[in-house]
Amino acid sequence: MTDLQSSKALVAQYYKELDSSTGDSINKVIGNFTSDDYLWRGMHPFYEQHSANDVADVFWKPFRESFAPIQRRQDIFMAGNNQIDDGQSQWVCSMGHMMGLFDTAWLGIPPTGKMVFLRYCEFHRVAGGKIQETALFCDIISVMKQAGLQPLPMQTGAELLTPGPRSHNGLMFEEQDPAESAKTLALMNHMTDDLVGSGMHSDPDELSVTWHEDMIWFGPSGIGATYTQERYEKQHQGPFGEHLDEIIFNGHIARFAEGEFGGWFGWANLSMKSTGGFMGLTGSDVRAEMRVVDIYRREDDKLAENWIFIDLLHFLSMQGLDVLGRLKGISRTD
Question: The pTM is what?
Fold first, then answer.
């Protein structure tokens, strides 16, 4: 297996070349860094793509035509051996924002002519000197709101531009202490076991075992962010448990940690039915999927910060609500 530093170096070089390319050169860059059987997973409306050219043509080129010039502003960069397959695969994760001038409509979202931030988290499986597999999560609903639209009812948490780690040490280009990585992963697993064992809802006593009292939960636009255990329970976990039913945990595709940071993603992590009220929306008899990313920062022996990405557009589309398709009926707030 390639060492983690080599995998990180490959992805860092990929980003350098991808972010500086334009037009058809984007196809070439992606092709140079990915395998012939490349699998790319993206959020609604992009879904799964199976070649470098499809990834370039479906996502990257339209995105880059709408937002230019692009600055990738990373907050976390890490790698690890995947616990899900007993360390047989190796993944690199990048999280942050892609910033650009929004001058051309994207996915029907009207341009602002101003700077816009697309919050993202991307996982790459690296093997044989190539990127074999990618999962790209990004917060499209946040872009809609930055463009002055209100596509969903008022959320329970705070709407804000999501910051990086309070400790400012998330860019791990250098090798990290394996003992610290193992400690982070063990804490993540403890927290997950508590959550799954209690039906995806932890009571205050359980939260206090693995979370700091002043924890921060940076949820996706549409749900929002919460601060402290008490407000996390009131503004996210409470509404989640009250308005969603028959929740099934399907597991993760990748789970790993490096240093004080770790994370995972699933496809889909959860399935459930909405009884009504979640995100201010009506109920549905349809079992819908939640494709979720969680990124964590450990501080000492507890979790301090959590960044979450959820493919809410897919979750809602499964219930018959096409948020992007309703753009023509949505008015700006400015």
Answer: 0.94
